[in-house]
Amino acid sequence: MTQSPRTSSPSRFAPSKTTMLLLVSATVVSMLYLIPNAAAEKAVPLPAASPNVLVGVVPATGPTDTVVFAGECSWGIQAVFQHTQGVLSAVSGYAGGQSSEADYEKVSTGRTGHAEAVQLVFDPKQVSYAQLLQIYFSVAHDPTQLNRQYPDSGPQYRSAVFYQGGSQKLITERYIAQLDAAKVFPAKIVTQVSPLQGFYPAEKYHQNYATLHPESSYIARFDLPKIDHLKTMMPALYRAQPVLVQP
Questions:
Q1: What pLDDT band is residue 174 in, cutting at 50, 70 and 90?
Q2: Is residue 140 part of a domain?
Q3: Residue 2: pLDDT band by 50, 70, 90 thresholds?
Q4: Considering the domain boundaries, does residue 13 fall inside one?
Q5: What are φ and ψ of residue 171, in 5° steps?
Q6: Cα(first)–Cα(last) distance of the chain, in Å?
Q7: Which pTM does this prediction carry?
Q8: Would the CA dihedral through 207, 211, 216, 217 be positive or negative?
Q9: What is the pLDDT of residue 167?
Q10: Is residue 213 part of a domain?
C-alpha cells in the first residue's frame, strides 16, 4: 500500500492515516485469533444419510473412489480426513479454476475461481461416500458460511463438493436436502455441488501441515479441535495414526 503525501505535520511523531489503518487491521486480525470463539471450534452432530438418500444409487464397485471437498483453509480438512478410517490419501490442493493459476499466491487473491480443497481417495468397503459427507458437514467445516470460514474470508474458502460421477452428485444433493429439512443448522447449507474439472495439488509446504505444525496458533485454535471432534463423535471412523502425503 502506498502512502499519500502529507500536506501538514502537526506533530513529528503523529502517525499517518495509513499507519493508523494498518494498526487497526493488525489489531482486528490478532483478536480473531486470540479471542476465544466457540463457533470456530463447534461441531454439529448430524444424522447419517437416510435410506431415501441412497435409493437408486449404484454402489461403488471398484477398490477405490475419489472425491474433492472444499470448505476452509485446506489444512484442517486434510487433517480430519487423514485421521479417517478407509481414507487412503488426502492431498491438499486447489479445484474450480485453471491449472495455470493453481498456485497459492494467485489463489489467495480470490480471483482465480479456485477453492482450497482436499482430494480424497478412499476404500468404499471401509468407509462409504455418505459417511465421508457426514464427517465433512459435521466436523470438517461449517457449511452455512458463504465464501468464508472463520477467520478466513474469500471465495477461495467456499464450501464446495466437487463430485465424480452421478452417484456422488445424487447422494450429496439428497443429503443436503435431508439436513436442511431437519434444520440441524441455524441457517441453510450454502455448499456448492459441482463436477470436478481438475484438481491441482498444493505446494509441498501445505501438505500434512497440521501434523507437522501442531504448535501453530492457527492449527491449535481451528484445526486440532476438529480431529478431537471426529474421535469423540465418530469413534468407529477415527484412526489415531494419520495417513500422510509422502514426499
A1: very high
A2: yes
A3: very low
A4: no
A5: -65, -45
A6: 37
A7: 0.84
A8: positive
A9: 96
A10: yes
Beta strand pairing status for 115-122 and 87-95? antiparallel
Residue 11 pLDDT greater than 60, yes or no? no
Instruction: Determine the 3-state secondary structure of 208 from DSSP.
Output: coil
- Per the rule left: phi > 0, alpha: psi between -120 and 50, beta: everything else, 154 is left
Phi, psi for residue 74 in degrees, rounded to 5: -65, -15
For a pLDDT cut of 70, what percent of the chain falls above it?
Answer: 83
Higher pLDDT, 15 or 224: 224
C-alpha cell at 25: 487491521
Name the pLDDT band for 41 (thresholds 50, 70, 90). Answer: low
Task: Work out the burial of residue 102: count CB atoms within 10 Å of its CB; fewer than 13 is exposed, 13-18 middle, 19 or more buried.
Answer: buried
Average pLDDT in the chain: 87
The bridge status of strand 192-195 relative to strand 160-163 is parallel
Catalytic positions, written as ranges: 73
Residue where the block lists cell 490478532: 30
CA 196-198-201 angle, to 5 degrees, is 120
Instruction: Please identify which residue in the block is written with the cell numbers 480424497.
Output: 120
- 184 in a structural domain: yes
CA 212 to chain centre: 18
As given in the structure block, the three cell numbers for residue 184 are 440441524
Of the candidates 67, 49, 69, 48, the one whose C-alpha atom is nearest the C-alpha of residue 57 is 49
* Domain region containing 159: 63-235
Amino acid 95: pLDDT: 98
Cα angle 159, 215, 118 (rounded to 5 degrees) comes to: 25
Phi, psi torsion values for 152, nearest 5 degrees = -95, 140
Number of separate domains in the chain = 1
CATH number at residue 181: 3.30.1060.10
